[in-house]
Fold each of these.
Amino acid sequence: MSQLANRAFFAFTAALGISGFTLFAAVGQPFAPAIPIVLYSAYLWLNRDAIEGTGGEVLRDSPYFLGFLLTMFALLLIFQDASVGGGAIAKSPGLFTKEVGSAILTTVVGLFCRQALQTLIPSAQVDEEGERLERVAAALASHAVQLERARQEFISTVAAEADRREAVFADEQHRFRAELRREADAMIRAATTSAVQPVFTAPSAVLASVGTGHE
């Protein structure tokens, strides 16, 4: 990355110098100052593999800063010419608007090249952020699965406990009814026995009284 950064800085400086010379010498305006920006951006695109592997956010943004510096330099020249009484802009005020438009063109071209590099050269930081989000999504999905499994186990446990208690209640109710039935049968047998016993004892008492009378 250090070698690429050094070469990119040299290319940046060269583009800045060439564009600055065209602005100062008023050569090929308004498009000539923007041509080195395009060439510098093409150089960065040719080295996109090295830039992509190391992030290179500053390098992807550098065409915009190059265009902005050229715009500032062009405006400085325009205001300096306007401040001189015998300057071309002082003699032709309509030329001021044309010169300012030419100065802004370098920033527009730099911004366009920056956006192109941002699109064509993926950011390693963005990839890392995407991987981090994917890991977070996978963890959330795993927790959701575990939560759903725990919910199902809880529902199964509650249902099994409810079935067990219902079975215990039904068994207790069955035993209670059986106990009541045995108690009722015992009471019925006891009542039947107490009612039948005087029937058998009464003839015996009559016979005993008759025997006593004959004597």
Note: The chain has a mean pLDDT of 77.
Amino acid sequence: MIAIRRDEVEATKLAVNRLDFHNLYPSKTLIRSIEYLLEQNSVSGDKRYLEAGLARLQAFLELGFCYDDGESVFSELLSRLGTDKKEQFPLRAYNARKIPLTRAQISGVIDRWSPSKYHTMSKTALVEDIFQKASEKQLGVYEYHSNANPKGRAIDRVYILYVEEEASYLYNDSLERYYIFENT
């Protein structure tokens, strides 16, 4: 197993989680970033590009994205480093949780929803909004707050919905967990 710099992984995770401000998709951005680093390694022969790519792959997996989404790119990276998925990531199951796109499943992954007047909407309306946007493929990034109180006295659980051409997924900020909707 090749050692990975934790500070680089954590910095990548922080940066990627804020891409939604620019309507960019974290999973695609990380895969493209690794593709770019592979290209730079091909041109220069500098192994540091591969090491940087490995840190991004680790961040990708820790954020809960599915390895299969970038399997060909990731396998190429690991091959150039002289390792493979099983050797580099033993005993780990890094996969976003796949759930059916139903109102009941969406409701089930939403933590306690505050009755605060500062929430984005009621939980019922939230579930319906997520369901409609994902099922109708309303492309974009949507953010929901359980308690956006400007005084910050209570916990604000943030959910971010990413609707892409290929898939839709919901990010639970407090759990740092992604849920990929099936049948989208």
Note: Residues 6-88 form one domain.
Amino acid sequence: MTDRELLELLVKEVSSVKEDVSGLKEDISSVKQDVSELKEDMASVKQDVSGLKEDMASVKQDVSELKEEQKEMNSDIKELKTTTEAIKNRIEDLDSKNANTHVEIKTKLNKLIEDNKSTYEVLGGHEVAIRSLQRRPV
């Protein structure tokens, strides 16, 4: 092999290596661009995650407030149940007393009716009728 042939072969090899290096540079440039885009996307994702964290904190606060309100409502319900039970007992007491009073009134009324019948018989129907008419306004 002559020097010329050897030089031509070297030139071909060097040209081939140059093309490969040029292709690698393009690939590296493309990879750099992809990495840059990924960094931008990552920054956007971080911002979104930060926003989600803030939203989650707000939701936790809301849930905490709702739990507190629920505790207060449960306490109010227990108090209302206790009050309702007391009112129910009081009404039952009054119903019982009212029933007893009703029986007493009915007994006394029956006695008065019987006494009135006896008085009517003693005085006579005619005398009672005259007295009833005298009491009426004319």
Note: The chain has one domain: 3-135.
